[in-house]
Design brief:
The chain has 258 residues and is mainly alpha-helical. It folds into two domains: 151 residues, Hypothetical protein af1432; 92 residues, no CATH class. The chain contains twelve helices and no strands. It binds fe (ii) ion. The site of fe (ii) ion has 5 residues, from helix 2.
């Protein structure tokens, strides 16, 4: 698969560069996703190795990382947004691009199905139910690898003074958190991100991702890099939020000690 992987990297590189433009706003978006693609691919490889997967499966993880956001480039060029609700689901867009690439015919059919499933489910609220353990494994793997890097991308914007510097800024500067989101946080359940209204809501949604981290490796990286603390220190001071943070820290400990 090494030779195929090399061609895939070459194709992806050229594909991303084909979206370069003189429009500064679009160019910035494209560069953010090019860099993200590189980091997520590296995260997939590192996580797959940490899980002691076979050489073959480490390579499959690499392919999934490389192509998971291939829909983002077309999405940004056409809609000038990374917001799926305001454009199209970028995972479905990725599958449309993938289905037109002939080199995927060289991939083992089972691997191809696993890859499509993982990419399709990388950005959904939950992974679609299936009895196929390989599909679940690779979906969990890309979800962790992706979230870890999104924390890197968003980190500078968690500080209130940078709230409106975020690319595609849509939520307003309000640091307060909507009652629904506080309720979700205290109960340790995922919030409905379609209901995000404030900058505080956005931070809570990112913090709640911690409950959706699947592997100890990812949690260790998140902790090492201080992403949780960075969000927590920028939340409003409130008794219920403090309760939610306490619950979250217990969950982190549980994953680390698993
Ligand atoms: Fe991604």
């Amino acid at each position: 698969m090494q030779e195929l992987l090399k061609r895939m990297h070459e194709w992806m590189s050229a594909y991303m560069k084909s979206f370069y433009t003189d429009d500064e706003e679009v160019q910035n978006g494209i560069l953010i996703k090019e860099k993200h693609t590189g980091y997520v691919t590296a995260n997939c490889i590192a996580l797959a190795k940490n899980l002691n997967l076979s050489q073959h499966d480490v390579e499959l993880a690499e392919i999934i990382g490389l192509f998971h956001d291939v829909g983002r480039f077309y999405q940004y060029k056409i809609y000038k947004t990374f917001n799926d609700a305001q454009s199209e689901d970028h995972a479905e867009l990725a599958l449309k691009v993938i289905d037109q690439l002939e080199f995927f015919n060289e991939l083992d059919r089972n691997d191809y199905d696993v890859m499509r499933f993982a990419i399709q489910n990388h950005n959904k609220r939950t992974v679609a139910p299936t009895d196929d353990k390989r599909k679940i494994l690779f979906a969990k793997l890309i979800r962790d690898a992706d979230k870890l890097d999104i924390y890197r991308v968003l980190e500078p914007y968690f500080a209130q003074e940078n709230a409106d510097k975020m690319p595609n800024f849509i939520t307003g500067r309000d640091p307060n958190i909507s009652p629904d989101f506080i309720k979700n946080f205290v109960e340790g359940e995922q919030a409905d991100y379609r209901k995000i209204r404030t900058n505080g809501d956005r931070k809570i949604v990112r913090l709640m991702w911690i409950y959706d981290i699947n592997f100890k490796w990812t949690m260790e990286k998140i902790l090492e890099r201080g992403y949780i603390e960075k969000i927590v220190e920028n939340l409003p001071i409130d008794e219920n939020i403090a309760k939610g943070v306490q619950l979250l820290r217990k969950h982190v400990e549980k994953i680390l000690n698993a």
